[in-house]
Amino acid sequence: MRFFSTNFFRGLIAQIAGTVMGMGLVMALRVIFGLPLSSPIEADDAHIREVIVVGGVIVGAFSFLVGAGVFGDWFKWARGEETSDEHTVDSSKPNWMRYFSVDFDHKVIGVQYGVASLLLLLFGGTFAMLFRIELAQSGITFLNSEIFKVLLGYDGPHLYNTLMSLHGIVMIAGILLGIGAMSNYLVPMLIGANDMAFPRLNAFAFWVNVPGGLILLSSLFLGGFDTGWVGYPPLSLRAPLGMQMFLFGVFLIGVSSIAGSINVIVSIITMRAKGMSLLRMPIFCWAALATALIQFTATQLIGLSFQLVMLERLLDMSFFDSLQGGDPVLYQHLFWFYSHPAVYVFILPGLGIISELLPVYVRKPLYGYKWVAFSSLGIAAVSFFVWAHHMFVSGMSPFLRIPFMYSTLLVAVPTGVKFFSWAATLWQGKIEFKTPMLFTLGAIVIFLLGGVTGPPLATIATDLHLHDTWFVVGHFHDTMFGGFIFPFAAAIYFWFPKMTGRMYNEKQGVIHFWLMFIGFMMMSNLQLVLGLLGMRRRVADFDAALGFDGMQLALTIGGFMVFFGMLLFAYNIIRSWTKGEKTEGNVWDSRSPEWQRPNPMPLHNYDQPFEVVGEPYDYGLPNSTYVNMNPAGETPAAH
Amino acid sequence: MSVVESYATKLARNRLGLWLFVISDAFVFIGLFVARMVLLGDTRPHLEQGLGLAVTILLLVSSFLMNRAEVEIAHGNRPAFLRNIFITMVLGIIFLVGVVGVEWQLAPFGPADGQAGAVFYAMTGFHAFHVFTGVIFLFIVWNNGRRGHYSAEKHWAVEACAIYWHFIDVVWMFFYVGLYLLGTPV
User: Fold this and answer.
1) Residues of chain A contacting B5 with CB distance shorter than 8 Å
2) Which of A79, A81, A196, A262 to mutate to test the interface with B (most CBs of B within 10 A)?
3) For a Cys-Cys bond, which of A103, A205, A276, A307 suits A272, CB 3.0-4.6 Å?
């Protein structure tokens, strides 16, 4: 079996061995320092176990990276050896093995990110379906099934809380990886480079997600955690061992986010093709740049706040526990300083995809290119000054609410710029309703819903009423589906021929769209309505006398439609990858440089550097070209 | 056909990448400093002033010597480069011993003793971890330099090491003020 010789498999073995060794190491250290290995008091015993397991898990994650060979070239540099920058492919190995190996090619890393993202989205969706079954009717029934107690050791409301928390954070991890997929796969191709600025850092940024994701998911089997994805102390200080797995897993995914974003910024600034000034750059690159600017700074704060909670649990350091002089609101400030800008990290690349695809299917120039480009930067800039709108009811000083209300409402301005641009681009266009375009249009409609439900949550008076109701859930799902899920699906369909050299199944794509769109509309509108009627979020049960049963059942059905839509999507991808119709050249008649190259994209993206000679989105204008693929006038070399 | 990139192109790219990393990493320390201001306000933990001043001076001197090392290799003077970077490394190790080995033992509180303990051990601990990685970096560069790597034209690793080391020192200047000087002792 060749699979057993892949870096991925070796990394897994190393992680298991490393975890065991790390636990042994902590135990040995405890013996040396005269600390007990167990205690007759249950709480102390659990604490000792936690210290040992966390030590093991940290060593295990590092072992994965060493075992998989992610650090290989860096170790060589440290020993003073040179390494080659050339991309080489070992032709004796089958092609699929590249995707399970530490490969420095940005196209391989992009696909690795994408597949890992879809896997995590599938996990997150499964968790949601499990608790949606429970919420379909009042009273706790499904989650009290015997099987959960046997499998996980807990059931009922605690299982609901764990599933709800994991749904949130696994989806967020999936989205972050999806963004990694889009920026890694697309940015070098769009700017005319052959790879990212730091290919090794790029590989590291992907692979650190693998132990991160595994550790995050392992929390399900280690007692779960009941804090929601926000992990507020003091609850997170008292939650079971699974909490630590959540904190450390997310920390690793954050490391990936930071490393990846530095790569994106440097690539965009230093590696653009000749003639590609910043204002002639494809619009997605602006979105990726704005995203990366948020990621590489703000992410550190969630890393810090999670580390402090880990330390407080392990060493009893009192940062956030008010019983010992700590300050729980401090955690919320540190946490939201990342986690609010983070939602713009989730949506900006998606909005970039919408602006990127619309002109192709409308055959008209993108309206107001400069405004759209700067609106991404505008959103990124404003995003750093809005975090406390999550904390209107947290007990922070009330006078802080007002500036945060205004700064939050300000976000609507650059976002509105994008909407006007999309509407004006669509105006009088010859629209071609292919699957990617359907998803683009769906994204605009859904994101609009997310946009109009935002101000009631930003305004203090209404937020005090709506805080922690399902209205917030509805608003958030609107922004995530409109800003990420739909554009991500559009991007995968659009660049599928570029990735695989084959075409997806159009009919299945259209069915996928309508299942998702109708299911999602049912789901999110009911979430909004239930929230307005007073349904609290993050509760496992509701009173039958409230009369929500019918709506909750319909909501569950909508959720399942979305879920089945995504399963169909996965089927379409897997099947078309091997059996799809082969494609040649410029499938969508796009002006973008990557479509002037063969499908799938060759190992070296561009044989010779191209030159940008015009505006990127001047579709339909006579005598306009964007790129001159052959500036030297030579006959192109055979591929 | 592939384009072989020049050393200068790569150098510019590496510099930008490293500075972005430094800015990114600075946010961790800003966050810790904010935590210190929120939790301790205008008070400060009771610490050994003499020791704090001593390690601070050590670290400042090491930063100066690191700069000398970088200048010497830029002038092609290998022995002086090696001498300076070696002393920088030794000073870094003494700093670590001073903070982790001595100050942590002398402090009248442990990490579990209230906010003062939490803040003190978190700030010095996060910083000491960076000093530790910096010392490893210094060792790698010194060791490669000893074996004849780096020249007046090509010494990016030395420059990177110097930037990282100066960054750690600048962070400590703020942390020294925050822990040893700001507010009244309790």
Assistant:
1) 85
2) A262
3) A276
